[in-house]
Specification:
398 residues, alpha/beta, TIM Barrel, two-stranded antiparallel sheet, 13% strand
Length: 398
């Protein structure tokens, strides 16, 4: 089965050297003047290290949808020349490059956007500074246009494909979730209505980009009251297929971040030290936060391969490629997933942070799994710093 993992494959018309994909990972470089050069350097390392394909960190389609000041953006034609430098630099190394597009919705940070957060329905999201207000019909239409224009810019920038981030509690996932979308108009209620925004984005984009590969990342389940469940996700996957999306990446989680990236315990010390909202806070605020964080963000027991069963159910229901991400750490697990037909491709996030050449190491038999210890410090620190591996140690610790 190892040969199956490391044989060439075709995903939505993109030629891959193997079936292991770098899943979208926020790089924390969007606020750097030389972000294009830094991105190119990172992606070249990933391509040289054997990644079958690379999905970029999320790029914002609209200024009012930014979650971080260092988030990539694709909301203006002025970005095209910079991204073209990235795609042209990476192309000789053979790994297709897919731009992920996102809008944070109720998770947008007012301190970054200068505006109040907006979501399908009025709601206070966990960890958010303010309550998001409900989007108007006109604002929804503008967001659809922004996504479609972002896809067009990705196409014109030379990316090999684009991915809609409809997972992890960002705006499109907020529309898809029965718990987060309480609207009673044509954008809420039935699955078809909740999916309408995705369908209209794809329909509008197709008018410009034709058969350009378009992927979607979905949360197949969460632990929100009345939220996403697998049966609902299977139905939505079918709607993705009908909407001419070319592949689905299966993840999990919406209003609880630690459903998405499993930890044995909430890394409170790292959040207090690295999270932008807390690292400069008073000792009293940090003390209160240390008490509240474990209650606000519960952890979950399963640490590895936790989305595989959901991906298998979705794959059984649709005839487009299915990718799975979430705690996949060992080559034998990757081989088993592919051999059993539970997914067509396997995506990794944190293993590529600690070892950009993880695929080459697995392929060449130098190791059988990732060295990642699931501390999640990398994903906490990236809010204010470029992406890096901390390996469970805070700055200043040895």
């Amino acid at each position: 089965m190892r040969m199956r993992v490391f044989e060439t494959a075709t995903l939505a018309g993109m030629r891959l050297a193997n079936r292991i994909i770098r899943s979208a990972t926020h790089e924390g470089l969007g606020d750097r003047e030389d972000f294009a050069a830094r991105l190119a350097e990172r992606y070249i390392r990933l391509a040289q290290g054997g990644a079958g394909a690379i999905i970029t960190g999320y790029a914002g389609v609209s200024r009012d949808g930014r979650a971080w000041p260092n988030m990539l953006m694709i909301d203006d034609d002025d970005y095209i020349s910079a991204y073209r430098r990235v795609t042209e630099a990476v192309k000789p190394y053979g790994a297709p490059l897919v731009l992920q597009l996102a809008h944070a919705g109720g998770r947008a940070e007012p301190a970054v956007t200068g505006e109040e957060a907006k979501a399908p329905s009025r709601r206070r999201y966990k960890g958010a500074a303010t309550t998001a207000r409900e989007l108007t019909e006109g604002e929804i239409e503008r967001i659809i246009a922004a996504f479609a224009q972002g896809i067009s810019r990705a196409w014109r920038s030379g990316f090999d494909g684009a991915q809609l981030h409809a997972a992890h509690g960002y705006l499109l996932a907020q529309f898809l979730s029965p718990a987060l979308n309480r609207r009673r108009d044509r954008w809420g209620g039935s699955a078809e209505n909740r999916f309408r925004i995705v369908r209209e984005i794809v329909d509008r984009a197709r008018q410009t980009v034709g058969d350009f590969p378009l992927l979607a990342k979905l949360s197949a389940y969460d632990y929100d009251d009345g939220g996403m469940r697998l049966e609902e996700a299977v139905n939505l996957a079918g709607l993705c297929r009908e909407a001419s999306l070319n592949a689905i990446e299966v993840s999990c989680g919406n209003d609880n971040w630690f459903c998405v990236v499993r930890s044995r315990q909430v890394p409170v010390a790292a959040i207090l030290e690295l999270a932008p909202a807390l690292r400069g806070a008073s000792w009293l605020k940090k003390k209160v936060a240390a008490l509240l964080l474990p209650r606000l963000f519960p952890t979950y027991g399963e640490q590895e391969n936790y989305n595989v069963a959901a991906a298998a159910a979705i794959k059984a229901a649709v005839d487009i490629p299915v990718l799975v991400v979430g705690g996949i750490r060992r080559l034998d697990a990757i081989e088993g997933i592919i051999a059993a037909g539970q997914a067509d491709y396997v995506s990794l996030c944190r293993p590529f942070v600690i070892e950009p050449d993880i695929v080459a190491r697995l392929r060449d038999g130098r190791q059988e799994g990732s060295r990642c210890i699931n501390c999640n410090y990398c994903l906490i620190g990236v809010g204010a710093n470029p992406l890096q591996c901390y390996y469970g140690r805070l700055p200043g610790q040895r």
